[in-house]
Amino acid sequence: MASKQKNKLSFSGKLFLLINAGFALLLLLSYLAACISPATFWPLAFLGLAYPLLLAANILFIVFWFIFKWKYLFLSLVVILIGLGHLRNFAQWNPIHKSLPREGVNLKVLSYNVRNFDLYNYGPKWTLNFTNRNKIYHYLDQEDYDIVCFQEFVHDRKGQFKTLDTLSTFLRAKHQHFEYTRSSKEVNFFGLATLSAYPIVNKGKIIFRTGAGNLCIYTDIRVGNDTIRVYNLHFESIGLSEEDHMFVENMINIAQGSNEEQTFGEHGRRIIGRLKRAFISRAPQAETVAAHISESPYPVILAGDFNDTPASYVYRLLSRNLVDAYRSGRGLGSTYTRSIPGFRIDYILHSPHFESFNYLRGDQKYSDHYPVRTMLHLPQPSAAR
Asked: In angstroms, rounded to a whole number, what is the distance separating the alpha carbons of residues 336 and 323?
């Protein structure tokens, strides 16, 4: 009898187990975010965004039960194991430097949202500030890539803030494909740019139904005796203002007065609304690109700013028939420097024709995104057609 009493949970233990069950259920539901379009049921997308937090909470429950009542740890453990594929998209432990094969072609690929090279960070009396632009140039010059995909690229037609014309002077990737969706006074043009060290034989673009200026471009590149297709894209942004970022970053320190609580509610509703709109907008954009990729006659490299995490519908749709180069990397791989979403939202995916090596996220804070890079090995270009 005493043994049975000892194994029984107290009221607080039962309450804790109930809370554990709730977090386990939320984690389980977060897996569905990758399977169901936000355009169909958007609340699941928020659970997908919260996946790392839900995962961390369930790991803490496992640790707790292991210390106090080990038989209850299986609740969270089983749910985590069900979603083990998600975990592999958020954390990798590969060797940092792995030797590349000597046969075939090795391509050094970079994807980088450069935030217009910090064009609008004006100096005194509205003078142009070249500091971060030049830092990005220095970073590019040190590595010298075969293929570079820029998002939030800007080209100044008057040449006061030089980009396209300057990059070609020091990069091997001198062949350029630039497409824009917006311009400022017909001087600054904003869009996407793909640069290649190999000849470009064809160019195209996929236009999205959006007022936010998002776009996807594709570039056919001749490599040896064969052709590969590079997709460079920028999906719908959340559109958070600087005030929204400041709110999130300082949320823990908000005072408990009535005015602050009202501000908290206003900010919270605004951020949730913007997240919802972006989730819904990105779904058809991703579907359009996925359909286009499925008809590509060439091996594909897909790079860009998805503005979505690996637990999202967008990522699952685009990675379904492609390989994530991040799988050859190491660490957690967060690519956004600000507070939201604070996860990996920039990607390099590729056809199985390629093998990826040594994926790395840079630490350069010259934009609100970190650069991501990888080595792609194509064993025999002529056999990859």
From this structure: 21
Q: Which of 61, 88, 115 is the last residue of a domain?
A: 88
**Is residue 217 predicted with pLDDT exceeding 80?**
yes
Whether pLDDT at 141 is above 60? yes
10-18 long-range Cβ contacts below 8 angstroms, 24+ apart: 13/68, 13/69, 16/64, 17/72, 17/75
Do 42 and 145 fall into the same domain?
A: no
80 and 220 within one domain = no
311 in any annotated domain: yes
Name the domain boundary from 88, 118, 146: 88
Do the bridges between strand 300-305 and strand 200-207 make them parallel or antiparallel, or are there none, so unpaired? unpaired
Which tokens in the block code for residue 31? 């897996």
Q: Are 218 and 231 in contact (CB under 8 A)?
A: yes
* Residue 101 preceded by cis peptide, ω within 30: no
**Are 63 and 142 in the same domain?**
no
Specify the 3-state DSSP secondary structure of 367.
Answer: coil
- CA dist 355 → 25, 330, 363 (Å): 36, 16, 24
Three-class SS of residue 110? Answer: strand
Gyration radius of the chain's alpha carbons: 23
CA 205, CA 221: separation in Å to the nearest integer? 15
Question: Phi and psi at residue 196, in whole multiples of 5°?
Answer: -140, 140
Query: pTM of the prediction?
Result: 0.91
Kindly write down the DSSP assignment for every residue of 148-188, as one continuous string.
EEEEEEEEETTSSS-SHHHHHHH-S--EEEEEEEEEETTTE
Range of the domain at 39: 2-88
**H-run or E-run covering 190:** strand 188-196
Domain count, the chain: 2
Helix, strand or coil for residue 232? strand
Indicate whether 287 and 151 sit together in one domain: yes
pLDDT digits (tens, 9 = 90+) for 165-196: 999 999 999 999 999 999 998 999 999 999 99
Query: What pLDDT is stored for residue 99 in this prediction?
Result: 87
Residue 314 lies in a domain: yes
Query: Any idea of the CA torsion for 318, 319, 322, 323, to the nearest 10 degrees?
Result: 150
Pairing of strands 226-234, 300-305: parallel
